[in-house]
Amino acid sequence: MIQDLLTRLPKAELHLHLEGAIRPETAVELAVRNGVPLGAAPQDLYVYDDLAQFLAVYGRICQAVVTADDFRRITYEMLETCARSGARHVEFFISPHAHFGIPFATQFDGIRAGIAEARADFGLTALFAPGINRELGPAAAEEYLDACLAVRCEEMVGLGLDYNEAPFPPEPFAPVFARARAAGLQVSAHAGEGGPAAYVRGSLDRLGVRRIDHGYAVVQDPDLVARCREDGVLFTCCPTTTRYTTPWRDLTAADHPIRLMREAGLAVTINSDDPPFFGTTLAREYLIAHRDLGFSLRDLGDSILTGLASCWLPEGDKARLRVEWEAEIASILAEDQTTMQTVLVSR
Ligand code: ADE
Ligand code: ZN
Fold first, then answer.
1. Which is catalytic among the residues 117, 193, 263, 285?
2. If you measure from the C-alpha of residue 231 to the centroid of ligand 1, how many angstroms do you get, rounded to a whole number?
3. Is 153 helix (H, G, I), strand (E, B) or coil?
């Protein structure tokens, strides 16, 4: 019952990686067809206990995706899975540099076709942002931005920063982010997943982002928490990912950062990151937020609307969706007995 209700809530998925959403059976099929050995069967391949190990497997799977039609297929399948979880709008990252030698134009053509098909079949919208691999350094990031801008399409609205944070702080990427912003791109940065609160602060101060992907380490810096609350910084959190890539492995712990971030009044959204890699779905992440992280249904409804308000759709679209979603969320939440009683008592 509760899972059904959570699935039906209209949602914006704001933190999802295209290549991290490839279905294992599709990865195997594409690898065989393209003659790219994955090196192990899925049950032995999808094994990792930290971010670096995960990224090594992610990199191998990326190489199995080669043709424009492969990109169309993985985009369509990812959006189909999102739609099944109640997503109505999806903003996703891509890692075009990780498909060695495949022209960015080929990749973008396939991704656009997948978005168009999914839009027609499932009625959802989708936008994307290439993610800079911070491990490759700022000079490579400048070339990467050029390559992306050269084949920019209307669905490419942003630029992200991802991969392993630990020895790669955000500050050296300030010039490339300035150039992206000047080119009219929206920006976000992964920070505070494996790196310290200082990387969240550095991303805000030097990269000009107002959206932090993950951000968990923020809870270690109360001044920064207060500042993010006042400035309405959006945190795109991914509960299950924390079990694999962060020190916070117990989702039910009283000091789990996503719980603390919500309690501190930060703008937190629930997302799925790399769902098949971490054995989850967007709807399941909502269940975990509700069951393990202390989000009431009302909190989840509010967080959906907060995410919508800060997402990268045009303002007019957001205003229209807000009216629709507010009504739908209210009607779905009213199905829940406890919520209904709370509403009646407070009248
Ligand atoms: N790329 C895909 N998933 C990621 C994550 N959780 N952190 C950093 N880079 C990623
Ligand atoms: Zn991510």
1. 193
2. 25
3. coil
